[in-house]
Design brief:
Blueprint lengths: L4 H22 L5 H16 L8 E2 L8 E3 L4 E6 L5 E6 L2 E6 L5 E7 L4 E9 L4 E17 L1 H4 L8 H6 L6 E5 L19 E2 L10 H13 L4 E7 L21 H8 L5 H20 L3 H4 L13 E5 L3 H4 L8 E9 L10 E9 L1 E6 L2 E6 L4 E7 L9 E9 L5 E3 L5 E5 L7 E2 L2 E10 L2 H9 L10 H7 L9 E5 L8 H19 L6 E4 L15 H11 L6 E4 L16 H15 L11 E7 L2 E6 L6 E3 L8 E4 L5 E3 L1 E5 L3 E5 L8 E4 L9 E3 L8 E2 L12
Parallel strand pairs: 2-8, 8-11, 8-23, 9-11, 23-24, 24-25
Antiparallel strand pairs: 1-3, 3-6, 4-5, 4-7, 7-8, 9-10, 12-22, 13-18, 13-22, 14-17, 14-19, 14-20, 15-16, 15-18, 20-21, 26-27, 27-32, 28-34, 29-30, 29-33, 31-32, 33-35
Length: about 700
């Protein structure tokens, strides 16, 4: 039970009145003085018994935050029931009382872009102050690893971090978390930060460049909320309500309702299993006992291997091998590096690793596909042939190094102006395998966000829903590529779901179409990634959506292309056109219609095909045509009338269908004059590779 201030007043007054009355009655007794003193003490103790407020403000609020302009704004949190909460903001003084369920909420009004402002929230025993608050537009940056990809690892990211950055750009990182039921609060506490914070290096590169380009073209503060998790599927980011029309998740959603343990409890059990494994087995192996990490280790029986690579892809006899493998190389220290501590990166390791330089352990990492960087003290280095040894331990799936050669480098700590690579030819030795019993135990207790639909929405999106936003940017799809036809409806369901859950109307939702990736096909054929791109493009039928096509800036050997600047800029072009009404071209040429003239096909594009050009000034590439037999052949293409494409193919006399850039990694060169690539398309609706896959 809790009392308000008036209730406490009446309580004190009644107590004093009763004491005075009792005194009159008992004044003839010897004990009257003792009684009176005791009663006064009782009143004093009662007056001191006012409960602690336990004031708590929701974790999305902090200094340096950006609040959404032009909408009613609220601040909320928790406190002991009945506690009076006072709030001061922009010369307004407001107050409320916490409810029986401990929640409280104060509406602070509607504001235009501006700031900085101060905010103070207080109770009888606690005061919380926030400063440097801006009013502007808030965007959510979400998806999987390409949205998570940090600024410091992006192309020219180090230079960007050292250069001048927009002062009106602010950032809020949401830590990775998952749960079976929707959470009201972010469990991991973070705070908003400015461009001057060291945290910026770890923030989403795509999000940063998107925000930077907006602030350069729209003179208002921009706030970016980063909420992403590498390798995750779209259904994990969608609410239970958003998935209710998908029968394939009906059983899973019902199962979540009946869960007796939270994910945190399961994680604790899983961690206990892993800790036992690490303690009793992980460090015990032939390689560790024989100290293969020492520089003088005989490497006559070690095999050459190209790094980065996954051992299942390189050695046929190691298919499905789980356990430890050892990698070894050497590197030199140039004169300008000598005497300096180094920073050394070895990409992403699948799953765990330990690294040694010249026999000295320099670090270890746990976790699948974790970015691995180590500090190397100058005291253990020598000018020539420093021996780098990495032990990789894989529990399930493929093992080894992911990424491309740009992620394998070393340089003086804090100075990336000169970077040397460790990628290339290394030596490789197979170590001890993981026993089936241990593997089954570890995998059985593993917890992945992809195991549970809604779990990321519940923990990383739902706590944000009461915080008004302008819109969202999204970079995800790789993990759903094998189910591209399902993604046609799933992705649109996610967009509708977020809009409904946020209750901000059909807010802008801009997304990135998958980049080119993997080995380039010599002949036209089917492609899961092409089907996923098509599914993404179908979401453009929803209002206030836009797509950034990046079919030209991917990397064949790396699912994480480092050019995030153009990705962020192309997303921002959509926002500038659709949300802010700027006179810009938001995307490249997009298919509009096809006209067949005997053996020729004329392709027309939408209004964004202002003038068709090719990046290499050669004939357009990437077009294929097919006849009624559904067999595609490369077509000869040429630009006609400035914004149309004429196609011919000697092997197809009566064409009926056209495909453009329909491959995992197509060769393309077609742009509009604004430098934006043509959007992949097909004119047929013939069943693809992923039909029926769920």
């Amino acid at each position: 039970m809790s009392f308000s201030d008036w209730e406490w007043f009446y309580f004190y007054f009644s107590c004093i009145f009763l004491i005075l009355q009792s005194y009159q009655i008992l004044k003839s007794f010897q004990m009257k003085k003792v009684f009176f003193v005791g009663a006064v003490v009782m009143v004093f103790l009662a007056s001191c018994s006012k409960k602690d407020s336990h004031l708590r403000v929701h974790g999305i609020f902090s200094s340096s935050m950006v609040l959404q302009r032009d909408v009613p704004l609220k601040v909320w949190g928790w406190a002991t029931p009945g506690t009076e909460i006072a709030l001061s903001f922009n010369n307004n003084k407001l107050s409320t009382r916490s409810k029986k369920d401990s929640t409280w909420e104060i509406e602070i009004g509607t504001y235009q872009a501006g700031g900085p402002y101060e905010m103070t929230i207080s109770t009888h025993d606690t005061t919380v102050s926030f400063h440097d608050i801006l009013i502007g537009d808030v965007w959510v940056c979400s998806g999987q690893s390409n949205m998570e990809f940090p600024l410091e690892r992006s192309m020219k990211g180090a230079e960007e971090l050292k250069g001048k950055k927009p002062e009106k750009l602010r950032f809020f990182p949401v830590d990775k978390d998952m749960e079976f039921i929707p959470l009201a609060e972010l469990r991991n506490k973070n705070h908003w930060f400015t461009v001057d914070s060291v945290q910026l290096a770890k923030f989403s590169a795509v999000g940063y460049y998107f925000g930077k380009y907006l602030t350069e073209n729209v003179d208002i503060p921009i706030g970016l909320i980063g909420s992403s998790w590498g390798g995750t599927v779209a259904e994990a980011w969608t609410s239970a309500e958003g998935l209710k029309d998908f029968p394939e998740w009906k059983d899973a959603l019902n199962d979540l309702k009946n869960r007796k343990k939270s994910i945190k409890e399961l994680e604790a059990e899983n961690n206990a299993v892993y800790e036992e494994f690490i303690k009793n087995d992980y460090y015990k192996s032939t390689g560790m006992e024989q100290k293969w990490y020492l520089p003088d280790t005989k490497a006559n029986d070690w095999k050459p291997v190209e790094v980065p690579s996954l051992w299942e892809d390189v050695f046929p006899d190691m298919k499905d091998f789980d356990g430890e493998c050892w990698y070894r190389t050497t590197f030199d220290i140039p004169a300008k590096f000598r005497g300096k501590n180094l920073e050394l990166w070895i990409g992403q390791v699948d799953d765990h690793c330990i690294a040694w330089v010249n026999g000295e352990k320099v670090g270890e990492r746990f976790g699948r596909n974790t970015w691995c960087g180590f500090d190397i003290p100058s005291s253990i280095l020598k000018p020539k042939k420093n021996v780098l040894v990495v032990r990789v331990y894989d529990v399930f799936g493929k093992g080894g190094f992911r990424g491309n050669s740009t992620h394998f480098d070393y340089y003086p700590k804090g100075d990336r102006s000169t970077r040397l690579t460790t990628a290339g030819k290394w030596l490789f030795k197979k170590g001890d395998s993981l026993t089936r019993a241990d593997r089954e135990k570890l995998v059985a207790n593993s917890i992945s966000p992809n195991d549970y639909p809604t779990c990321l929405f519940n923990a990383m999106i739902h706590p944000l829903l009461r915080f008004p936003v302008k819109g969202a940017i999204w970079y995800q799809g790789e993990s759903n590529a094998s189910r591209a036809y399902q993604y046609r409806t799933l992705f649109q369901a996610l967009i509708r779901d977020w809009r409904k859950q946020w209750n901000c109307g059909d807010f802008p939702f801009y997304f990135v179409q998958l980049a080119n990736f993997m080995e380039r096909a010599k002949e036209p054929g089917e492609s899961e990634w092409a089907e996923l791109r098509e599914a993404q493009m179908m979401a453009l039928q929803l209002p206030h959506t836009g797509m950034a096509t990046i079919i030209d800036i991917g990397e064949a050997n790396d699912i994480h292309p480092t050019n995030k600047h153009d990705v962020g800029k192309r997303l921002a072009l959509n926002a500038l056109k659709i949300t802010y009404g700027k006179n810009v071209v938001p995307h490249g040429p997009m298919f509009k219609s096809m006209e067949i003239k005997k053996n020729k096909v004329i392709i027309s594009f939408d209004e964004c095909a202002t003038e068709l050009v090719t990046s290499d000034k050669k004939a357009p590439k990437g077009f294929a045509v097919a006849g009624k037999d559904k067999k595609f052949y490369w077509a000869t293409a040429k630009i006609v009338d400035g914004n149309k494409i004429e196609l011919t193919c000697s092997k197809v006399k009566e064409p009926v269908a056209v495909r453009y850039a329909w491959a995992n990694n197509p060769e393309v060169n077609l742009y509009n004059k604004e430098g934006l690539p043509a959007v992949p398309f097909r004119t047929d609706d013939w069943p693809g590779l992923t039909v029926g896959k769920k």
